[in-house]
Amino acid sequence: RTAELDSICHKAEVIPVITIERIEDAVPLGRALVEGGLSVLEITLRTDCALEAIKRMKKELTGASIGVGTVLTPAQYRQAEEVGADFVVTPGATEALYRYGIESPVPMLPGVSTVSELMTGWQYGYRRFKFFPAESSGGAKALKAFGGPIPGAQFCPTGGITVDNAESYLSLPNVMCVGGSWLTPSKLVEAEDWDGIRKLAQEVAERFHR
Ligand code: 3PG
Questions:
Q1: Is 77 close to ligand 1, i.e. is its CB under 6 Å away?
Q2: Residue range 91-130, pLDDT digits in tens
Q3: Which atom of ligand 1 is nearest to the CA of 130?
Q4: Which of 74, 107, 170, 180 could form a disulfide with 100 if both were Cys (CB 3.0 to 4.6 A apart)?
Q5: Could you tell me what reaction this enzyme catalyses (predicted)?
Q6: For residues 47 and 203, what is the distance between their CA atoms, to the nearest angstrom?
């Protein structure tokens, strides 16, 4: 599981966290990001069309890794499996999710924001986590401190990450990538400005390339 998540997360320093409002945006938006150089995407289950969007993106965006985010329950985890998710991301983690994730063929990146939560996930055998909400949970300083007691855990921080603070996380030894919604500004998406999205992705991919 850990190796599988590593191979996905190391494909991109930055993972766009995408909420699809209009189903017809899914494929062109995803394609713009992938063409710009960001080939790992997280689609949140926050809208009615999310599952259909993921299905279409899986079919059309060959070479991309598609994660399903905002998974709150094992039932949603199952839905993510059914639409072909490459990985599952949760904002926090429950015992039910941890147990489900161990048995699932699709790896999970559980969300944690404290050392206690991290210890629970660690006990279940998880080694890769989402740090959420990163900026309001102590930011890069907190994450750096997590590396003291549990140096083997690696994180994808999200929540309040921007082009200006991404580097403060990416420079930490326990950060594998960062995520966020800043790659899909609603102004560009609403205007269907796929060229604008592609350029933004390109700038970000070049700037944070390691
Ligand atoms: C997430 O689920 O990871 C967040 O909604 C992304 O946070 P952001 O909108 O602050 O980037």
A1: no
A2: 999 999 999 999 999 999 999 999 999 999 999 999 999 9
A3: 3
A4: 74
A5: 2-dehydro-3-deoxy-6-phospho-D-gluconate = D-glyceraldehyde 3-phosphate + pyruvate
A6: 28
What's the ipTM?
A: 0.91
List 11, 13, 24, 42, catalytic entry: 42
Q: Does the annotation mark 130 as catalytic?
A: yes
**Cis omega before residue 133 (within 30°)?**
yes
Write down the pTM of the prediction. 0.95
* 80 CA distance to ligand 1 middle (Å): 19
17 lines ligand 1 (CB under 6 A): yes
Distance in angstroms (rounded) separating the CA atoms of residues 177 and 109? 12
Residue 158 Cα: closest atom of ligand 1: 3
Say if ligand 1 is within 6 A of residue 202 CB. no
User: Which tokens is 172 given?
Assistant: 């930490």
Which candidate in 130, 187, 192, 203 is catalytic? 130
Fold of 2-207: TIM Barrel (3.20.20)
In degrees, rounded to 5, the angle at the alpha carbon of residue 141 between the alpha carbons of residues 179 and 125 is 65
The DSSP output letter for 175 is B
Hey, where are the domains in the chain? 2-207
Whether 132 contacts 158, CB under 8 Å: yes
